[in-house]
# Entry
Amino acid sequence: MQEHPVDNAQNQGESSCAPNDCESCSSTCSARSARPDETAQQFKDRQALQKRMCRVKHKILVLSGKGGVGKSTVAVNLAISLALSGKRVGLMDADVHGPSVPRMLGVEGHPVEIVDNAIIPVRAGSISVMSVGFLLRDQDDAVIWRGPMKAGVIQQFLKDVEWGDLDCLVIDSPPGTGDEPLSVCQFLENPDGAVIVTTPQAVATSDVRKSLNFCRQLQLPVLGVIENMSGFVCPKCGEVTQIFQSGGGETMAEEMHVPFLGRIPIDPLVGIACDDGAPYVKRHPESEIAKSFAGIGARLIPNEQGPASNTGPSEKTHSEKDSPMRIAIPLANGNLSMHFGHCEEFILMEVNQETKEIVSTSTHVPPPHEPGVLPKWLHELGANVIIAGGMGQRAQQLFVENEIQVIVGAPAATPKELAGAFLAGTLQTGANVCDH
# Structure
């Protein structure tokens, strides 16, 4: 059974910290007092860092077990996608030896300003960015640093950069499990977790497993796996060619018992956009790739009415007694249809939330399946939960936007069996059988 990424997040609400006075802060932040083994300067630095980070709601690391899987491309487009959804986003490039984020965002060589002893991050459109690339005299200079120096600059990026109030700080880490991601985890103390990027082939997924084990050893939650370069879509005929096979990332996620966030196909325009310094999701907002990133972002940081779990009723959505629970289930031949968009009919069950009993049922023939139609139609019928076998990332986002909790990966059972298991909190979900 897979947990929804939001279940693993540790910083879901507004911070209760007092940004200018750690000693009088009412939170349980460790910066309130010095540790027995640290000097006065170390405590001062740690307190300054936590003052910065208490203004950031979510901290998400982007990791990969090996190079060449498109990790920085994913980090950049994920950050931009979150910003396009209206969130305040920062992007920190923790790849000391190969900082590529400035180039991808078109801000390479931008000077860094210092105001009141704080480093002002570079603005790339609507997001704030910091990278070692901004500090190099020449972009071709090699950074030859040992571990302590790399840890020092990462600490400086977290402590001295004026990030301000952010909904999310995306941290792009270099490949592997070395000094940089280790330093980030140690300095942050309580990041939301990590997004793991892989390509479908076995040689990549075997290395990425090391990143998953790295997270577990550091007790860093794994928010999910993204399978990048998953199939090449011909720009002329639309035929999909599996250059690197397909499904390796999803299979690995299932085997390692972590969420699978989605697939990103290969598109030559992605490389062109990176070279041009124009993020792909901003240049091609209506593309399937942009929609995939939007869906992933919505799962990582859902809206206030977003789903809280895949296995039971959402306390946030359905705790109000004056808002009855209505569960929608797509049917084919009397059982769950494995893809909600191709079902024969929907059954709608109204539930007494106090007794967990189904009080009424009704059957509805859906309108013709077109993007965005079914979520709105079910919302108008009063549905606030949908149980499905498979559903694409964009469709999940649309249901969330229509205040409908989404459960995917349900088995092909009868509506009564599915609703009963859901209400009891025992519904066993598996793989999303249709994630396009």
About this structure: The chain is about 30% helix and 20% strand. The CA atoms of residues 115 and 162 lie 9 Å apart. Residues 202-217 form the longest helix (16 residues).
